[in-house]
Design brief:
183 residues
């Protein structure tokens, strides 16, 4: 291979490495390990990869790679694909950042809403019990009412967050924040 064709190939690899490094560095936002982040970033430039190809390319141990692939599948950043005639599983990275953002954050926000609203409902029942309890002093009743009201106010946020998730899932958010904004 001549130097004239080698230099552009090296330049392509250097450019890819810049993006791979940046993606891998910021994947902690998605709660993945550096190994999983590096795997996703590497897969981003590939059409598809088998587990063996991943291990060879990244020099990862089989357990570490399997754990990383599973985590990336959980957050919908990697999908298992079917290749006719092959017994090996292949995987493809989600290349649509809008889709991966929506899948991950909607999943996390739905979990936050569900857990916190359930806890708030249970706590508010406890505060009502304290308020109705004949042994509660006026001071205790005042404190229970204050906390009850504080929790009632916080529900607005969780209902708003639930609406945000729905607007993202339905695509309605893009009416307000179009995907194709230019710099």
């Amino acid at each position: 291979m001549s130097e004239s064709t080698e230099r552009p190939k090296v330049k392509i690899e250097e450019a890819k490495d810049k993006v791979i490094g940046a993606i891998a560095e910021t994947m902690d936002l998605y709660g993945v390990t550096p190994a999983a982040a590096n795997l996703y970033a590497t897969m981003y430039f590939k059409d598809q990869m088998t587990l063996d190809e991943m291990r060879t390319e990244l020099g990862m141990s089989k357990p570490s790679m399997s754990t990383s692939v599973r985590k990336l599948q959980e957050i919908e950043m990697v999908k298992k694909t079917f290749t006719r005639g092959s017994r090996k599983h292949t995987y493809v990275a989600e290349k649509n950042f809008f889709r991966s953002f929506m899948a991950f954050y909607c999943q996390m926000w739905e979990r936050e809403v569900k857990m916190n609203l359930e806890a708030i409902e249970e706590a508010q029942e406890d505060f009502i019990d304290v308020i109705k309890d004949s042994t509660s002093t006026p001071e205790i009743v005042t404190t229970a009412k204050k906390h009850y009201d504080q929790l009632e106010e916080s529900k607005k946020y969780y209902h708003w967050l639930d609406d945000l998730v729905e607007s993202i899932k339905s695509g309605k958010i893009f009416e307000f924040l179009p995907k194709d904004q230019q710099d």
